[in-house]
Amino acid sequence: GAVVSQHPSRVICKSGTSVKIECRSLDFQATTMFWYRQFPKQSLMLMATSNEGSKATYEQGVEKDKFLINHASLTLSTLTVTSAHPEDSSFYICSATSSTSRLSYNEQFFGPGTRLTVL
Amino acid sequence: GENVEQHPSTLSVQEGDSAVIKCTYSDSASNYFPWYKQELGKGPQLIIDIRSNVGEKKDQRIAVTLNKTAKHFSLHITETQPEDSAVYFCAASRGSGTYKYIFGTGTRLKVLA
User: What percentage of chain B has pLDDT greater than the value 70?
Assistant: First the structure.
């Protein structure tokens, strides 16, 4: 199956700093990537949808100036948490899909997640 | 808005017994229903999925059923094993290949040895 990686797997930062998380599709071209946030013992909440070469579409309540998403290539999307605060501490998960490759219609492939802790 | 309800939130079964998790979706345009298993500290892993043109699908000990009229779909795990212990999420999605998933609230399954 298709493989999606995330880097870093875990990051600790100070309040007020910015953190960048990378999401890569390793063996397919991802025309669309999704970013989710998951708080402890809760479900995955979609933050934004990112199409390669276009601006991301953010879900209601997600601040686009705080969570910067870039999908500059068909294998890489980045999420930057700007001026992070303790309440941004969460598990961030990306997924990727493709409308053009051999992948199954609709299927999203998920990365392993990034644990962000803001002190 | 679109939402997916999932029950139960926690489920404990004895090893070897069956486990059933149920989901109900609100968006009648949904036509793809995947199920994910998530272990602690890891990303979700697809375990089975079903499309709206099929009523049931089975893969070894795992099966999924879909009732489009009632907007219900269920996950069935037979002969449960301790390694089945995890959090399970259902999701619903529309026809476009790049349309977003709406996730259920999750079920924490514990299989007791």
Answer: 96
